[in-house]
Amino acid sequence: MMQLLRPIAFIDLETTGVNLSKDRIVELAIVKIMPDLSKITKRKLINPQMPIPAESSAIHGISDEMIKDAPSFKEVGNEVKQFLDNCDLGGYNSNRFDIPMLMEEFLRSEIEVDLSDRRMVDVQHIFYSMEPRTLTGAYKFFCEKEHNDAHGAEADINVTIEVLEAQLKKYEHLGTSIDSILGCIGEEKIVDYARRFSFDSTGNEVFNFGKFKGKPVADVLRTEPQYYDWMMKGDFPMHTKKKLTELFNRTLLKK
Q1: I want to staple 240 with a disulfide (CB 3.0 to 4.6 A). Which of 95, 124, 172, 236 is the partner?
Q2: What's the rounded Cα separation, in Å, for the pair 98 and 100?
């Protein structure tokens, strides 16, 4: 079983799509495991204030009719923030989708959330490090069970927790603490959640896309400041733009 110094909140989202800058959350489920291993669950349907595409409804089963009377994220955002206070975070592919999407919703709602001191345990990362599969495959592989309610947010997150517990039993070298797990599989150092920036071997932020890929952000902003304007006007996630602005202001201060 896990050994926890503080709560860890496992998050799963259902959304209108997978575009961080355009799509919205329609269902949010969080299972918070306390240091005594008791669990507290929060689940909410959320009105995305945009039509849910038919192809997305076909995956998660949530229709426009089901969420027409649900609150918007802005209406529940502070409640969600408080529920996550002082929690490490976990999920399945959560580092690359659920947490970035959740942070976009917080930013759109002008709710300040700082995750810089949170540890993030992505069960998919453990799984892909050991036995590459999908969540349904992981459940069958580690737990010898069929996941018959895939793409229900609460069902998915409870399956994710079961998979993590089975992983800790199977791979004893992972240990049972957040520190030991991340020490074994590695902990990604993140600039922005959409990974448009990354760190180089010396710890400097570099572009992770486009014509300046691999080049230090500070150098590009110093020599071609118009690139900042292009990105700020472009179809980039809000968190990416926020980090870009922080880097741009830091570059100006060093002039």
Answers
A1: 236
A2: 6
pTM as predicted: 0.79
Strands 8-15 and 88-91: parallel
Q: Which amino acid is at 84?
A: L
- Encoding tokens for residue 226? 């118009």
32 has which bridge partners? 9, 40
pLDDT tens-digit readout, 70-104: 999 999 999 999 999 999 999 999 999 999 999 99
User: CA-CA distance, 101 to 98, in Å (whole number)?
Assistant: 5
Averaged pLDDT of the chain:
94
